Amino acid sequence: MDAAGRRELIEKLCAFEGRWPGTDAERRAANWLAGRLREMGRRAAIEPTYVQPEYSLAIALHVALAIAGSLVALASGPIGFAMVLLAAASLYLDQSTRFYLLRRLLFRRASQNVVSPGSSPNAPARLLLTAHYDAAKTGYVFGPRSTRLARRLPEALRVPLGPLRLIFWAGIVPLLLASGLRMAGLETRWLDVVQLAPIVLLLVSFALLIDIALSAVVPGAYDNASGVAAVLSVAAALDREGPENLDVWVVLPGAEECNAQGMAQYLGAHRKEIDRQRTVFVNLDSVSFGTVHYLAAEGAIVSYAMDRRLIQLCEAVAAADESYAARPIRIPFHTDALPARARGFRAISLLGVEDGVGPPYYHTPDDTPDKLDEEAMTRAVAFTVDLVHALDRDIGRAGTAAPEPAAQA
After folding, report:
1. 366: buried, middle or exposed (CB in 10 Å: 19+, 13-18, 0-12)?
2. Within the chain, what is the greatest distance between any pair of CA atoms?
3. I need a labelling partner for 131 at 20 to 30 A (CA). Which of 35, 212, 238, 257 fits?
């Protein structure tokens, strides 16, 4: 698929307006993508699943429970502590995509994953090229001010000052400690003062989360129609060239914008079929801007390190062709690589950003196809193809190494 074909695909995908997880637009987009894969000569199937799409309401529910628990602790320390502990544990598990507790109180919607198997099932290893096709909601926190603020911050501070990290580590955890002290019988004026600051932070966060829930769905050209177009381009190139040691699959998950639930559900449904020792995930997310960056780690509350060998291969590809200007980055958010890493699979994500920060139209109504940077897309596709060839040679030389455990930093 050439640059014109990628642009056409992005424009068509964005024409499915409002493809929020669990919507009819998302379903129609999935059906169209399955048809597009069949036109490429690949098999394709739609795998239905169920998700709780309103991620901002789910986080707001945790925030509200933590605030309520801290107030209840004024009268009953044990009960208040238990409420805050439940909020903290549930949010931690929720953001790791391993288990959903409070989120289950919200309504479910039908979503779907588009799955295209490879044509070489007897190959030594299986490669899954992934990119989500759903679109996000906007909100006040995604305005241009946020992008400008992120650019001003030193790169080392962008992860610890991530939104969810502030909510968890500067909001809920201090309330948990304060409630624990009250449960232990400590009642002092300074504890009241210490408890006030995280409550204010959580109240502001609650308002911003509700604003996201009430906001409109963006076109999603950059995030992530560009990733879908890039994956299909890479798949087409690999189908022509035929890697010797890889069975190349394409998986286009839905429901990424509600905390990668689509990919988490795919892994859960196929956990007995996916061989950890011979399966590799390469995810493309938002690649129509800036230069190629490969993730070293990602995660909203704690960081999950990407597969060390895949990082080394990315470094080798970047060193072999300096025109990519590719480098590693850590982000305080998630991509569809996170569910795979949290479950111990080999995975990495590639993003298109500038100086480690996305474009000013990220998660805004201005994320439209006319913003497409064709050179950025071409670089991302070429880098991914080079990475897959490097992986193919690596597997051919050494065999498929067992995956390293998902590391938390």
Report:
1. middle
2. 71
3. 212
Nearest to 338 by CA among 389, 303, 291: 303
Write phi, then psi, for 293 (nearest 5 degrees): -125, 140
Domain housing 22: 3-54+112-138+217-398
Of residues 185 and 45, the one with the higher pLDDT is 45
Task: List 292's β-bridge partners, or say none.
Answer: 352
* CA proximity to 266, closest of 253, 275, 257: 253
The answer to whether residues 198 and 256 belong to one domain is no
Q: Which residues lie closer than 8 Å to 355 by C-beta, 6 or more apart? A: 151, 155, 290
Query: Which residue bears the tokens 């950025």?
Result: 376
For the stretch 310-366, pLDDT in tens is 999 999 999 999 999 999 999 999 999 999 999 999 999 999 999 889 999 999 999
Cα 263 to Cα 260: distance, rounded to the nearest angstrom: 6
CA–CA dist 215, 208 (Å, integer): 11
The pair of structure tokens assigned to 31 is 């059906």
Three-state DSSP state, 268: helix
Number of domains in the chain: 2
Q: Which residues of 137-150 are buried (b: 16+ CB within 10 A; e: fewer)?
A: bbbebbeeebbeeb
